[in-house]
Amino acid sequence: MDPVTIKDIARALNLSTSTVSRALRDSYEISPETKRLVMEYAERLNYRPNPIALSLKGSSSKALAVIVPQIANNFFSQAINGIEAIAYNRGYHVIIFQTHESYEREMANVQQAVARRVDGLLLSLSSETSDVAHLHALHAQGVPLVLFDRVAPDLPVTQVVADNFGGAYAATSHLLQTGRRRIAHLTIPPYLSITQERLAGYRAALEQYGVAFDENLVRYGTFGPDEADELVEQLLAQEPRPDAFFTASDRLALGCLTALRKRGIRIPEDISLIGFTNLPAAEMLNPPLSTVTQPAQEIGQLAAERLIELIERKQKASPPATVKLPTTLLVRESSAPPVRAEADFRIGL
Questions:
Q1: pLDDT on residue 55
Q2: Bigger pLDDT: 90 or 316?
Q3: CATH numbers and ranges of domains, the chain
Q4: Does the keyword Transcription regulation apply (predicted)?
Q5: SS3 assignment, position 56
Q6: Of 31, 55, 189, 243, which has the fewest beta carbons less than 10 angstroms from its beta carbon?
Q7: What's the confidence (pLDDT) of residue 317?
Q8: pTM for the model
Q9: Is residue 249's pLDDT more than 50?
């Protein structure tokens, strides 16, 4: 079926195409009754503006570019769901790009999005991106831009994030409250904003409980395959060895679980484990994984709302700000107190 056009609506309602066009734009020149007739008919026929035609006229393309490290990452797939829900309801299309954690691909994706004349960009930095000069240039050109999750604090644009500090503080505090004291932290590249915030929360909890920070208990990953095994091996070689692992990503949490189990280490009897993840299967693991969850869909929704506000209101839009959404600590069996775990083991529970 051919897409419905403004001419089709005008012919059906016996109106001029200019009247229909202005009614769809909610122009003050058109009466409320005519607007209602046009909008109801357009909705009934599932009318959508032609983005190419709009672009050729120099108007809005009604398209948003979303640039993420990897769609297969559960956090980003949930965030994209939130973005698309808001975009669709506001009449925008979404074009999705993946960087696959590559700085070069990120720059290429930005250039491609601008070449397609999108109205604005939503972006989460790749793990290789330590220099954001390309985004400063984009902002200087007046291109609407909002960052989410992995952000650049020195970039003067709106940035929507989870409370990474609070989540890491809560996770580490929980481990300390259960009696753990040698808490290893497996994390991701050090220049990423989420790495710095989660490490800061981990350190703050140690300080609060009077436990000295030991940088030998911190290991940085690079999103490589099966790298958790080597990191766990290095940490277990220490004396005394760690009695808990707090990981800063779902991938590292799963890798850590596999590495510990392979070495015959019981969780949580010997070592506690807690992640920072949106992994849906966390509660189905053996043992069920304690974790910090992020409001991924809400982050996507809010980021899209702020970008569309920036596009449509321009100078009247809210000033750049960092918007922080709360995280939630879910305590499950993988971080049970050692004394209780040992008692349960003795009585056969």
A1: 47
A2: 90
A3: 63-162+296-325 (3.40.50.2300), 164-294+330-346 (3.40.50.2300)
A4: yes
A5: helix
A6: 31
A7: 77
A8: 0.79
A9: yes
SS3 of 290-339: EEEECCHHHHHHHHHHHHHHHHHHHHHCCCCCEEEECCEEECCHHHCCHH
Cα–Cα–Cα angle for 291, 293, 297, rounded to 5 degrees? 155
Please give the structure tokens belonging to residue 118. 């999108």
Q: Are 299 and 139 in contact (CB under 8 A)?
A: no
Q: What is the DSSP letter of 73?
A: S
C-beta separation of 309 from 318 below 8 A: yes
Segment holding 147, helix H or strand E: strand 145-148
Q: How far apart are CA 84 and CA 113, in angstroms?
A: 17
Q: Tell me, what amino acid is at 258?
A: T
DSSP state of 63: E
Nearest-10 Cα torsion for 84, 90, 93, 96: -30
More confident residue, 22 or 169: 169
Using the CB atoms, write b or e for 156-177: b if 16+ within 10 Å.
Answer: ebbbbbbbbbbbbbbbbbbbbe
| Residues recorded for the chain | 349
| Pair 221, 188: CB distance under 8 Å | yes
Q: What's the pLDDT tens digit per position in 189-244?
A: 999 999 999 999 999 999 999 999 999 999 998 877 678 999 999 999 999 999 99
Query: How many Å apart are CA 17 and CA 264, to the nearest integer?
Result: 74
Quick one: tokens of 50? 């032609």
Torsion of CA 45, 51, 53, 59, to 10 degrees: 120
Q: Could you give the 3-state DSSP secondary structure of residue 66?
A: strand
Residue position matching structure tokens 């703050």: 204
Instruction: With CA atoms as reference, report the closest residue to 322 among 158, 200, 163.
Output: 158
Residue the block writes with tokens 């609506």: 9
Can you say whether the dihedral through the CA atoms of 210, 212, 217, 219 is positive or negative? positive
Contact 224, 100 (CB under 8 A): no
